[in-house]
TrEMBL record:
It is found in: Secreted. Removal of H(2)O(2), oxidation of toxic reductants, biosynthesis and degradation of lignin, suberization, auxin catabolism, response to environmental stresses such as wounding, pathogen attack and oxidative stress. These functions might be dependent on each isozyme/isoform in each plant tissue. Heme b binds at H193. Binds 1 heme b (iron(II)-protoporphyrin IX) group per subunit. PROSITE patterns: PEROXIDASE_1, PEROXIDASE_2, PEROXIDASE_4. The keyword Iron applies. Residues 25-331 form the Plant heme peroxidase family profile domain. One of its GO terms (molecular function) is metal ion binding. Residues 1-22 form the signal peptide. This is Peroxidase. InterPro entries: Haem_peroxidase, Haem_peroxidase_sf, Peroxidase_pln, Peroxidases_AS, Peroxidases_heam-ligand_BS, Secretory_peroxidase.
Length: 332
């Protein structure tokens, strides 16, 4: 049964006609009349949560990304396992990794108190990701709203469609293309790695295997060598796989353009960060990275545009899906 669902997901992703029609039904200020305080409630609670734990900014942004890349932006990632359905939370890329569910639960509870069965969990994820970015100094953008929540999750889809931290550039490009996103979207959305952390198990390969793709083949001033020494002190050859390191060592809690400076120097934490430069043989991506590294305003504007685009992937609208009462479970 799971294989059948996975085949249907692939067919849906490859067919953009449905996606475009659904996304056209999303609008700004969707809840202006239905639930006027919706965006304020989301924003306030995200700000409070991130103030208490700055790491949650990256966690909420990542939740939205991992949701959209599996069946579309439909809050399927929030569903818990029930008989006959394994949660996406149990998939390899998500297990013991995704965070922020309690923040979404609290927001949903407050919205149900204010406007019962009105604001979808999918829209909450979208708004929370935007507000999380802004809370760390990043851009703010107007989100399109009106999504419905899915009635199922896809454990297999989560294992298949979420990019691995050691992906090649070709693999990343193909992965994003399946979602209707292009190379420009891939590069700018990778900039979300300006905040957050990763476990040693995600990047050990890139610090113990001396490959050109990890430092762009250029290390005259030993910058990569020194950086690798720091990473090795955090993550020894054996053990401490669950130890964390910041994705951006320079400004780990601030959403800025420093990620792009890092990868130009071969100092992206993940292998999938550095391949944007090392495997860009025609220099197209390097030009884009240079543009973001030297002009934060351009990065912010491009990031907002691509986030809106990603938020439109295979959305459910109209009579599709439902508005869940509890984001963890389909309505009875």
């Amino acid at each position: 049964m799971e294989h059948v669902k996975l085949l249907l997901i692939i067919i849906t992703i490859l067919s953009n006609a449905h996606t475009l029609k659904a996304s056209e039904l999303l609008v700004h200020e969707y809840y202006k009349e239905k639930c006027p305080l919706a965006e304020d409630i989301v924003r306030h609670n995200v700000e409070v949560a991130v103030f208490k734990d700055p790491r949650l900014a990256a966690s909420l942004l990542r939740l939205h990304f991992h949701d959209c890349f599996v069946m579309g932006c439909d809050a399927s990632v929030l569903l818990d396992s029930v008989e006959g359905m394994t949660s996406e939370k149990q998939a390899g890329p998500n297990l013991n990794s995704l965070r922020g569910f309690e923040v979404i639960d609290k927001i949903k509870y407050l919205l149900e108190e204010e406007c019962p069965l009105t604001v979808s969990c999918a829209d909450i994820l979208t708004m929370a990701a935007r507000d999380a970015v802004e809370s760390r100094g990043g851009p703010r953008w107007d989100v399109l709203l009106g999504r419905k929540d899915s009635l199922e999750s896809s454990f297999s889809g989560a294992n298949l469609f979420i990019p691995a931290p050691n992906s090649s550039l070709e693999s990343l490009i193909n992965n994003f293309k399946q979602q209707g996103l292009n190379i420009e979207d891939l590069v700018v959305l990778s900039g979300s790695h300006t905040i957050g952390r990763a476990r040693c198990v995600s990047f050990k390969q890139r610090i113990y295997e001396t490959k050109q793709e990890y430092y762009n083949g250029y290390d005259r001033y030993k910058r990569y060598t020194n950086f690798r020494r720091i990473l090795r002190s955090i993550c020894p050859v054996t053990g401490r796989d669950n130890k964390f390191a910041p994705l951006d060592f320079q400004t780990p809690k601030r959403f800025d353009n420093h990620y792009f400076i890092n990868i130009l120097e071969g100092k992206g934490l993940l292998g999938s960060d550095n391949v944007l430069i090392s495997q860009d043989f025609d220099g197209t991506i390097r030009d884009q990275v240079w543009g973001y590294a030297t002009n934060e305003k351009i990065f912010f504007a491009s990031f907002a545009k691509s986030m809106i685009k990603m938020g439109n992937i295979n959305v459910l609208t109209g009579d599709e899906g439902e508005i869940r009462r509890n984001c963890r479970f389909v309505n009875p």
